[in-house]
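user: can you give me the structure for this one chain? tokens are fine.
assistant: on it. calling the predictor now.
[tool input]
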Amino acid sequence: MDNQPHFIYLFLLLSVIITAAGAYAHANSFTKLFVFGDSYVDTGNRNFTASSWNEPYGITYPGRPAGHFSDGHVFSEYIASWMGIKSPTPYRLREIGSIEYGMNFAYGGTGIFETLVAAPNMTIQIGLFEQLLEEKLYTEDDLKSSIALVSVSGNDYNAYIARGGSLPGLPAFIVSVVKQLGLDLERIHDLGVPKVVVMGIQPLGCLPQFTKEYSYEKCNETGNLASLFHNLLLTTVVEELKLENGESEFVMLDMYDAFMSAMKKHENETGTSELKNTLRPCCAGITSEDGCGDVENGEKKYNVCIDPKMAFFWDSFHPTQAGWHAIYSVLKSSIANLFQRELWGSF
């Protein structure tokens, strides 16, 4: 009888170990990540003419410009860490990088259709993926343990407005964008990727590009309404895809609420610091004609805040690494629930 407490303790300890081991195995059941989209997930596909290769991009990580549209990590890297794998190699660097963890096909500035950037849009990116499958770079077994991450953060809408598109015509254009996005998601799934994760659009009206007209004091309501309409349509499309293909095979991440929650938390935590104003970017052009990273005749045409780690937005469109970390922190529990597994990752 004296040994009974020890037996119970050992039994409980063994149960915990077995449960943890099972969770760990489940967490690592996804071993490859395939990324499609734009600058929110691009880790170096744009060529050296892009601002992402100019100083001060990468100032926080890795300490130099590395093709990320931020001062450090972008969202796809947090998803890779959550999966317990290294960030997949950019497609442009596939000849010199590892393909073990999947591949990143995203190009900053692109969208569903042609935008203002001459780089592969979503259709072409998926075509590049399909070509690699035809070349047997990845097998059917490789794909069985893979996830696709898809980002559409609004470049189509920026291009629409820049080309003279009217506000009354914007809803119809949003319908066409989301309709094509649904076809793209289904195509990725049909190529053999079992889990397709699509990012809903962030509150466009809260990006510094649009809040600067209000001295970074408030968001643009029209931009946010456009985002909400996009997300409403996308939710319907994703639900239809689930009905057709299986409840667990398509996942939509609520980036709108994640941004809003993370921005509110940031404002509360920064207190009276110079970066309490969440909507103000850390890196901004000296004039309205200049942007972060611009240089003219060897002279910098931008200013950078004292501490990027205290800022939410990096430039006119993109969060800082700290901003992305805050957004990921809001989302990670819902991601775990969606995939019904434990959280793992180093970030």
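assistant: here you go. Strands lie at 32-36, 89-90, 102-104, 146-151, 195-199, 250-253, 283-285, 295-296, 299-300, 302-304. Residues 7-27, 341-346 have pLDDT under 50 and may be disordered.
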